Protein 1
Amino acid sequence: MKNRVIFVVLSLFSLMFSVSMYTDWRGYDHGLFYWGQAVLPLDLPRHWMGLLGTEYESVLLYNIPDGLWMFALCAMILAVWGMSEMYNVGIWLFLALMSGVILEIFQYTGLVPGTFDWFDIYAYFIALGCIVFLSQIQNKLKWKAG
C-alpha cells in the first residue's frame, strides 16, 4: 500500500507542476487557463524566461509539461497496478506511451489540432524511462527492507 501512495503523490505533484508550467508560466490570464494559478501558484517572471534563450524557453514551456503529463500518467498506472503483475504494468505503460506518440502523429497529419514536435516524443520516452527507473529503485529498496 505504501508503495502505491508514493506513485500517487508523484503523479499528482507532476500533474500540478505541469499545469502550473503550462498555464502560469506562459502568461495566460483568461478563461480556461486562469484556474492554473489556483491549483499551484508558481510565477516565473517573463524576463527570467528571456535569460534562458528561445530554444530552452520553448523546451521549458512546451515539452517539459508534456513529459510531466506522461510521467503523471505512468506513475498513476504504477499506483493502480502496483508492482505485482509486471506484465500488465508493462502493457499499460506501453499503451500510455503509444497514445502520446500517436497523438503527436495525428497532430502532424492534421487529424488532431496542435503542433507536432519531436521534442514532445522525446519527453514521453524520457518520462517513461524515469518512471521505470524509479520503480526499479523502489523495488530494490522494498526487497532490501523486506
Protein 2
Amino acid sequence: MWADWNQDGDFDDLNEMLLQKTSALSIHENINIPAWVTPGSYRLRIQMRDSKKSNACETFSFGEVEDYTLSVNHINARVLPPKAPTTITVYPNPVSSWLNIRFGKLPSGKIKVYLINELGQMVYTGLAQITGENNITLDCQNVREGAFTLICRTENWQETKSILIFH
C-alpha cells in the first residue's frame, strides 16, 4: 500500500510506502500519516499479488492494483520525547542563501537529507557520506521562501528540524 504524499505522480519518495505484507488472509493494519502531511486529498494505491513483494508500479501477471482517494482531514499528532540528545545543528535559521547542517557523533555511513515545504512537497533530496562529526551545506538560494521541514536519516536514525527560508 502506498500514498503519494507529495503529489508528484509516483510512489518512490520517503514515507510513501505505507504497508508491505505477504499473506493469503485478510490484512488488518493501522497506517501512520507523517506529521508533515497537510489536510487534503492524496492518491492511495493498494496492490494484491501472488505473495511477492513489489514496488507500486511493477508489472506482474496475477493480482490486482487499485487506486483510491485518501482524504486527510486533520492529524492528531503525538509529540514523543527524543530518544537521544540532538545530533544535528542547523544554522543560520532563518536562512537566506546557504544552510549549514552540523552532524554530531553519528556512526560512519550514508545519510539522506530531505527538505519538505509547507505543502508536503519534497523540494530537495540529497545523499552524503559522513564519518563522525561532519558539516554539509545546502544551497537554498533558489528555494522559495517559507517554512520547511528538514529530515536527516540513516538506516537506524532520523532527526527532523524546522527551518525558515527568507531571501
Protein 3
Amino acid sequence: MLIPCWDSAGQIHHLEGFPTSFKDWSRGEELSAQRREFLSAVEKVTPSSISSTRDLAVDMNLTLEVTLDDGQVLVVRQCYPSQNDDVEELWRTSKFESEVNLMQWLEQNSRIPVPSIHSVMRRGTDSPAHFIIMSKLPGQVLMNSHSLLSSLAKVFALSHLTVRNTVLELFRLDVPQRIGTTIPSNPGDGLDVRPKIGKQYSLSADRVFDTLEEYMRHLFSLKRKSKSIGDGDTDKARAYSTLTTLEDLVNVHLKSLTSPSLRRCVLMHDDLHDANILVDIHGNITGVLDWEFHSIQPAVLAVGYPAWLSYDDTNDPRFASSSVWWVVGRQESIELRRQYAMIVKVKDLEYYEALVAGLFLRSVVNWLIDEHADPGCLRLRGWMISEEALGESLTQPDQIVPAK
C-alpha cells in the first residue's frame, strides 16, 4: 500500500506503508524446522490447529496472525531468544515479562484498548521461546490510514486518543512515584518499578531514579557513551563540549519546574508511534499495541504531542537523520498539534500545563536517546543554536514556529 510521505525539503512522495504481512503461510506449504517447532508449541495451547499464518512483524519480535481450523483469528508474539549473550537474554526476557504484566494490568484497571492475553508460554520443555497469544483487535495501523481519513476524522482521532482511550487515562492512572519500568508488585495486583528498560539493552538503566534531576544525569551519561557521537578524538571532544553546554542549560531549566504536578510520575507508552495505533475509518482508536517499551516518568516528560505530527528536535527537517520521513505535511501538522493542545487544555488542564512546560525538556530527551549517527553532535548543536533564537516560543504550543 502506497502512502504519502514528505521528505526534508517538504516534497511529497508515495512510499510503501507498514506491510500488512511480511510473509503468508497456509497448511501444506513448506515450513522451516524452526518455524514448525514454534507453531507446534503454539498449537499446544490453542483450541484447534493452525491453518494459516501471516507475519505481522519480524524485527525485534516475531508477531504472527494465526487462523485456526475453528475460524478464530489470534495474534502470537514471540520473544526472540538471544544468541549466546546472557546480558541480552536477560534484557529480552525482562521486557517480555514486563509487557505481559502491564497489558494484563491495563486490561483490569483502564479502558485503554489493549489486546486480551489468552496464554503466556515461557521457553522450556514445551516451548522453544517465550510467547503470548492475544486477541486480534479491529482496525488498521494509523500509519497506513491517516492520509485516508477526512480532516474531521483526523481531529476526531486526536480527540479519541486523548479523551476516551489512552493519553489522559495514562496520565491519571495510580502508579508508583519512581522513574523506571513497571513490574508486578509483591504482594498484590498493583505495579512496582524496576530500572528502566531501554530500546537496546546497552541503553537500559542500572537503577530506579527518585528525581527528574537524577534521570536527566543518567541520560546525559548514556549519550556520552553512545557510539552515535563518533569514535574519533575530535568527534568526542566536540560532542562532550556540546553536551556539557546543553546539560548546563537543562540544569537551569529544571530549577523552574517547581510545581508538584509537573514532577508527578506518570505511566507512558515509550513507543507510541503511528504503527502501534489501530484506527477505524472514522478515526476511532481501536487498539494500542506493543507495550514492551514503557516507563513511569515525570509528567513533563510523559506527556507530548502525537509522534507522527512531530517536526521538532530530531524530527526537525534541518537536523533530522537522512532516514527520517514524515507522514503528515508541515502545515497540517501545525494545525493538528494546535487542535491537540486545545483538546487537552479543555479536558485536563494539568496535562496541558505539563505539555507546555516540558516542550524543551522532551526535545532534549529525544536528542539524548537518539541513536542515529551524529558525529561530534553537530546535528544536535545546530538544533541548539536554532532553539536559542526561538526564545520564549519554545514553550508556546499554540505558536509553533516553522523551520526556515
